[in-house]
Amino acid sequence: MHSEDEDVYELSSLMTPWVLRTAVTIDLPALLEEGPRSTAELAALTRSDPSTLTRIVRYLACTGFVKENPEGQVALTGLGRRLCSSVDPLLSLLLKADSAAGRIDASLATLPSALAQGQVGYARLFGKDFYQDVASDPELSRSWNELMADGAPSIVEEILQHVAFDASSHVIDVGGGTGHLVAGVTQKYRDIFGCVLELPYAAAAASALFAELQLTGRCRVQEGSFFDDLPEGDTYFLASVLHEWPDGDALKILRRCAEAMPAHGRVIIVDRIVDSGKGDDALVANLDIMMLTATGGRERTREEIANLVESAGMQVQKQTVLASGRFLVEAGRAK
């Protein structure tokens, strides 16, 4: 029987999360998925110190992720198989300590100083801000692109269900990641042209997607920053963009959209919001702290998003809380 103090410590302990991240980072689950192995063999395959790896494996056994068979070899349990990329690719990617997600997780250790000083901890920890860091490392870029691509289909599906594009001719996905949103819209609406504005590390992934889907005749990629002049279009997407930035920068992005779009143009914003009423409060609170330490962004209320839109010289025309809890806003020029 655990005391309440012990329960609180177990909930707050960082031991299991970081042991799991260590195991996934060295591909331990993938090696054990092939069959039981000795600790010595695992140490050789992962180029790990045998004594240290023995201690990691012992902890994984105590927490139910591996077990020792009668021959003294290490084997995965059913729980441990969940760590394999073949079973849950997203979980495996999220748990890699050397991925973009792993570095974001590491920045959570700076939360106490962020609270005291109001500063983003990521740059202090890694020597450069998150986007500079991702852009400077091909492996970080690849992992971040994979994360963006994983979440894209559900956003695309919800947008296509709730937004009409019959009057659109050219859609611009501002900070559009790997291009899935533009691809989805142009596949459904065959007379629409699309453009993704992105930094080089993501622009390459979007170009590859358009080529794979044979959309290069109608879809293009423009390398650049959304703090600079934007390409011409009549519909501008900001999907999961504004929450990554503090208010001042979010306002700059919205103003760039307002400057670029014609009188009949519109901006479509999709972001999580606080108090959506869809049961995603824990997810939003998680994302909010993540943005606090990693990028300086935040999750906002619907009123805070509307205030940003109005400050950028636009007005909200439509707003909908989607089934997922995401908040979809259509905004146009203020009259």
Distance between the termini: 66 Å
> Are there runs of 5+ residues with pLDDT below 50, and where?
none
- The number of distinct structural domains comes to 2
How many runs of DSSP E, i.e. beta strands?
9
Cα radius of gyration in angstroms: 23 Å
Compressed to H and E, one letter per element, the order equals HHHHHEEHHHHHHHEHEHEEHEHHEE
CATH superfamily of the largest domain: Vaccinia Virus protein VP39
Amount of helix? 40-55%
Description:
The protein is α/β, with parallel strands linked by helices. The protein folds into 2 domains: 4-93, Arc Repressor Mutant, subunit A; 130-333, Vaccinia Virus protein VP39 (Rossmann fold), CATH 3.40.50. It is globular, with a radius of gyration of 23 Å. It has a 7-stranded mixed beta sheet with strand order 5-4-3-6-7-9-8, sandwiched between helices. A two-stranded antiparallel sheet has the order 1-2. The longest helix has 25 residues, at 138-162. It is built from 17 helices and 9 strands. The chain has helices at residues 4-12, 15-25, 28-33, 39-46, 50-62, 78-81, 89-94, 100-107, 111-117, 121-126, 130-136, 138-162, 180-188, 200-212, 247-260, 281-294, 302-311; strands at 66-68, 74-76, 170-174, 193-198, 219-223, 235-239, 266-272, 314-321, 326-333.
